[in-house]
Each structure stands twice: as C-alpha cells, then as structure tokens.
Amino acid sequence: MKKTYKIDVDCANCANKMELAAAKIDGVSSAAVNFMALKMHIEFEEGADEAKVMKAVRKACRKIDDDAEVYI
After folding, report:
1. Cα(24)–Cα(11) distance, rounded to whole angstroms?
2. What is the pLDDT of residue 71?
3. Can you list the positions of beta strands (E) in the chain?
4. How is residue 2 annotated by DSSP?
5. In whole angstroms, what is the distance from residue 67 CA to residue 51 CA?
6. pLDDT for the residue 56
7. What letter does residue 69 receive in the DSSP assignment?
8. How crowded is residue 43: how many other Cβ atoms within 10 Å of its Cβ?
9. pLDDT tens-place values along the chain, 72 residues long
10. Beta strands 39-44 and 28-34: pairing type?
11. Comparing C-alpha atoms, which of 70, 61, 71 is closest to residue 18?
12. How far is residue 47 from each of residues 15, 20, 36, measured CA to CA in Å?
C-alpha cells in the first residue's frame, strides 16, 4: 500500500535526511520526500501496521529536525 503525507520541514537537506530515516523503519518498503511539494510518499510492506509504522517514521524525523512535522 502506498500513501502520501503532508510534511513541514525547513530545508532540503533535512528533507533528504528524513527520507533516508523513513526508509530504514521496519514496515517501510520505500520512502520518498518531495521538498518542494512538502510531501512524503511511503510504500508499506505487506501486512505492516500503518499507524505503528508512521509513529516510528514521525519519531525518526523529529530526531533529524525537532521542528519537522509529518501530518498523519
């Protein structure tokens, strides 16, 4: 399953780091961040719990930039 989430991030470098961090989360098959559109595209692994995975993604993104937000 693929989903798109609105994000709030201040710089392209942080957006790139968020993309890399999200891709490492268990349950994420692939992740892509579009800084200009302020969107994060997540493809979940088969059977992954979306809410649990996105909570982990959000936490990982906050570690990169404490002002960053992933709107779930």
Report:
1. 21
2. 96
3. 2-8, 28-34, 39-44, 69-71
4. E
5. 21
6. 97
7. E
8. 14
9. 999 999 999 999 999 999 999 999 999 999 999 999 999 999 999 999 999 999 999 999 999 988 899 999
10. antiparallel
11. 61
12. 27, 22, 31
64 membership: H or E segment, kind and range: helix 50-64
Closest CA to 40 of 27, 31, 49: 31
Sheet of strand 28-34, all strands in order from the earlier edge strand to the far edge:
28-34, 39-44, 2-8, 69-71
Burial class from Cβ neighbours inside 10 Å (0-12, 13-18, 19+) for residue 16 reads middle
The neighbour count for residue 30, using CB atoms within 10 Å, is 13
For residue 60 the two structure tokens come to: 């990982």
- In single-letter form, the type of residue at position 65 comes to D
Report the alpha-carbon distance of residue 42 to residue 19 in Å, rounded: 9
Question: What are the φ/ψ torsions at residue 22 (nearest 5 degrees)?
Answer: -65, -40
* The pLDDT value given to residue 31: 98
